[in-house]
Amino acid sequence: MGDEEDTRTPASKSADILAKIKADAEKRRSLTKIGEKEKNVDDHKDDLKNRNSLPEDGRKVKKRLNDTAEEEEKAQSSKKRKKSSSGGENVEKEDVHDEFPQKKKKHKKERKNSCEMCGDDINDKESRQVIMKKLSGDDKKGDDKDNLEPSKSKDKSPTKSKHSEDGKKIKSKKMKQAKQESLEDKKEDSCGDDDDLLSEEINGKEVGGFTVLGEEKPKTPPQLGRLLPDWLASPSLVSADLSASSPVETLSSLDTRLVEKLKENGIIDFFPVQLQVIPEILSEVHYGYKTGVAGFRPSDLCVSAPTGSGKTLTFVLPIIQALLNRVECKLRALVVLPVRELAAQVYRVFQTYCEGSKLQVGLIAGMKPLHSEQRTLVKHGYGGYESLVDIIVATPGRLVDHITQTKGFDLTALRFLVLDEADRMMELLKQDWLLEVEKAVYSKGRDPPGPLNVRNSYHIQVPFQKLLFSATLSQNPEKIKQLNLFQPKLFTAVGGGTNKGGALVVGGISPSLDQKQTDVNSKGASSLRENNNDIPGKYTMPAELTEECMECTSAERPLLILHFLLNLKYSQILCFTNSKDSAHRLCLLLKLVGGFTSQEVTGNTHHTKMTKAIKKFSQGQIDILVCSDAMARGMDLVNARYVLSYDPPKLLTTYIHRVGRTARAGKEGTAITFVQDQEFYHFKKMTSAIRRTGLNKIKVPKDKLEPLVPKLQAALKKLSFKIPRKGRSKIKRGTKKGK
Ligand SMILES: Nc1ncnc2c1ncn2[C@@H]1O[C@H](COP(=O)(O)OP(=O)(O)OP(=O)(O)O)[C@@H](O)[C@H]1O
User: Fold this and answer.
1) Which ligand 1 atom sits nearest the alpha carbon of residue 313?
2) At what angle do helices 433-441 and 396-405 cross, to 10 degrees?
3) Across 104-108, 191-195, 633-637, 668-672, least confident range
4) Which of 420, 378, 368, 422 is nearest to 398 (CA)?
5) Which ipTM score applies to this complex?
6) Region annotation Disordered: residue ranges (predicted)?
7) Which of 25-29, 62-66, 182-186, 554-558 has the highest mean pLDDT?
8) Which ligand 1 atom is nearest residue 349's CA?
9) Ligand 1 atom with minimal separation from the 312 CA
10) CA–CA dist 162, 107 (Å, integer)
């Protein structure tokens, strides 16, 4: 396009050149057209593009013309300055040229040369200017260059003159002025509010014959508040303070047989969560397990209470009481837990409190082969299959195995479904175990919950109630929705105030919901939201727990353990690592040092070995039990006094469950977390939601650790022989295969 315009310019030699370029390009185009007749329009466009890129000569000419025009304008402006002013900058610039006539000549020569090359008529100023404007399309650039040119020439001069110095001063003055102007502009811009007002005033008005439409400013959206379902927003509050307990007799609705059992097992008082939740469950079985209150289906319950606050008995007791007077043995209660050791633990509690009654409890957690578990669940009688159990404690995987493979395994009479460690169970929902259970429950003519109609009003609908328990229960409505809860009710623990290490209950002591809401929105709570993407205000820590954070290097960690065991004579220590390998290595090392008893318990440990180790630890026969996070949840190690986190946990929930292995049932306990310098910030931030006071770092003086170094080094030397180097085992295996 630009080329076409140039041809239309007044007749000049430069214009001729441009015409030449155009003609050249035309030739090329025509040649390509002849050569490629069958090419489509796109090819033609490409050709035009090539045309723009091909005439290198033309570009050169354009450049030269630019240079020439610039030079000409410089000459013109210097002449004008000469005429118009007698002082200041212009005078100085004139002088520069006057002083250096050679320079002037050189400029002229350059112009002449360039014109010889391009064939332009340099005397035709008008044409040159027009060409210049057309080609460059930017007059200002040329002007700027013009302004700079004299100073450039000055710099190149062999001697520095007075004038040139003056010129510099003037230039710097100019620069300052420009700076000031730009600063003022910026100031104006930064006065946001005033500016906004101004623009609003101007907006829609006539300015210089134009209507100012103004800019559309983005409006900041109003901040959204938390909008929760009613049952989550207004939970029933339970005190986390275990000292606020009441004698077991205070629960008048509890069967006397169970009260006796409790006393036999040394339980004299009920903890707050038990005092509140047991009557709630019992109220729905007052007229038997077959109907809810007034024939309505009972609400599902969610209970969030700190670790070691007695949640297990909270569901064990009312379930047993509901089924105590049953006539026919049918599977009516199902308790699901994430791991088999936990399932075995809860199974033992059920057995303890069912002892002496006709109720039968079963365990299906994969500890025995499937067929031997099947024999304990159902038998084939005269009238078909009969259930041998009233209550089953299960892990989700094995439960699904029985639903799909065990003949006569019938869930249609199920009254209670308990999800202990419910937040973990929600994570396992991906395995669809709950869908399988619900499918089995609503089969063989049992109607799923729905509106009352003539058909279902004729026969009694056994209500199906879900009970959820956890110390870190997710109150994220999206997650909870997956559980298909029916008119759920939430019991959440609050209270206690700060514990000895500064950790506290998120929410604080709050008799009223309003108070709780205030605390929920506190700074700590908001960081919890950040960490977990969950609704805050749900995690509580045992008030008897003392938390410590020990700053150390990676190499110092085993030394610190030796210091605790050998110098401070600590015992009943649970030591958590972040991996099985790490636990294995540490346990080996500690055994090599000697002087105390240690044992390892991880996900790889066989369950009989694990049960033995837990028993020994509870009896005080093991000083330190090194474990992975497989042991972090739910395990009731009654005598654990110290919880060491050899590696700091990555998640807040993991931390809560780890430290919750101590300070249980109102007993004192200490949690010590080893934190390296670079890990401290993350750890502090992660745990900030469960503490109100700052987290203090403790350091053991080096002089206390140094005497232990030779012992550790000797053990490490032995350990290097015990643990094969990377690849050694592979090589061995490889050679075996080769053989
Ligand atoms: N009322 C009570 N009085 C004294 N001890 C109790 C009482 N209730 C439960 N316990 C004991 O407290 C310990 C912890 O109970 P439990 O295992 O039920 O806690 P939990 O809340 O389920 O903890 P976690 O969240 O870690 O699983 C158990 O040893 C249990 O026997």
Assistant:
1) 18
2) 40
3) 191-195
4) 368
5) 0.99
6) 1-199, 516-537
7) 554-558
8) 31
9) 18
10) 23
Return the H-helix or E-strand segment holding 207: strand 206-207
* Cα-to-centroid distance, 720 and ligand 1 (Å): 42
Rounded to the nearest angstrom, the distance between the alpha carbon of 452 and the centre of ligand 1 is 40
Ligand 1 pocket, mutate which of 258, 349, 664, 667 (most atoms under 8 A from CB) = 664
Ligand 1 cavity residues, CB under 6 Å: 267, 269-271, 274, 305, 307-313, 471, 634, 636, 638, 660, 664-665
- Tell me which long-range contacts 348-354 makes (C-beta under 8 A, separation of at least 24): 349/312, 349/313, 349/316, 350/316, 350/320, 350/391, 350/393, 352/261, 352/265, 353/258, 353/261, 353/316, 353/317, 353/320, 354/320, 354/391
How far apart are alpha carbons 14 and 7 in whole angstroms? 10
8 A C-beta contact, residue 215 and residue 199: yes
| Nearest Cα residue to atom 10 of ligand 1 | 310
In three-state form (DSSP H/G/I as H, E/B as E, the rest C), the secondary structure along 394-442 is: ECHHHHHHHHHHCCCCCCCCCCEEEEECHHHHHHHHHHCHHHHHHHHHC
Residue 500 has what pLDDT?
45
Three-class SS state of 470: strand
Question: Residue 545 C-alpha to ligand 1 middle, in angstroms?
Answer: 15
Token pair, residue 403, equals 């639903």
* Closest atom of ligand 1 relative to the 470 alpha carbon: 25
Long-range contact pairs involving 379-388 (C-beta distance under 8 Å, separation at least 24): 379/408, 380/408, 384/408, 385/410, 386/329, 387/329, 387/330, 387/331, 388/329, 388/360, 388/362
Ligand 1: residue whose CA is nearest its atom 31? 310
The single residue listed with the structure tokens 């993407």 is 533
The confidence band for 383, taking pLDDT boundaries of 50, 70 and 90, is: confident
Mean pLDDT over residues 554-582, rounded? 93
CA 357–ligand 1 middle distance (angstroms): 23
When pLDDT is cut at 50, 70 and 90, the band that residue 685 belongs to is: confident
Helix (H, G, I), strand (E, B) or coil at 241: coil
Q: How many angstroms separate the alpha carbon of residue 312 from the centre of ligand 1?
A: 6
Ligand 1 atom with minimal separation from the 345 CA: 17
Contact yes or no for 65/132 (Cβ under 8 A)? yes
Task: Look at ligand 1, atom 16, and give the residue with the nearest C-alpha.
Answer: 310
If you take atom 8 of ligand 1, which residue's CA is the nearest one?
310
